[in-house]
Design a protein that fits this description.
This is Phage tail protein. It comes from Synechococcus sp. (strain ATCC 27144 / PCC 6301 / SAUG 1402/1) (Anacystis nidulans). Pfam families: Phage_tail_X. This protein is 23% helix and 17% strand. By secondary structure, the protein is α+β, with helices and mostly antiparallel strands. It is elongated.
Length: 70
């Protein structure tokens, strides 16, 4: 687990994007790991300690193309 200290005007999805490289599947676990953080959203004040939990890598999906170019 990593610790992130906010800067004034940070947003949780931006923090997740910078740390995890994505927002999908990251915001909810971060909010769950930090009780009370959701009460401060959407724009966070400075100097808030946020625990960033270890998350599994996203799974890739196989793309099925039903149309092909000739």
């Amino acid at each position: 687990m990593a610790l992130y200290i906010t800067r004034q005007f940070d947003e949780i999805d931006e923090i997740c994007w910078r740390y995890y490289g994505r927002t999908e599947g990251t915001v909810e676990p971060v909010l769950e790991a930090n009780p009370g953080l959701s009460d401060m959203l959407p724009i966070l004040p400075g100097d808030v300690a946020i625990d960033l939990p270890e998350l599994p890598e996203p799974t890739t999906r196989n793309v099925l193309r039903i149309w092909t170019e000739a």
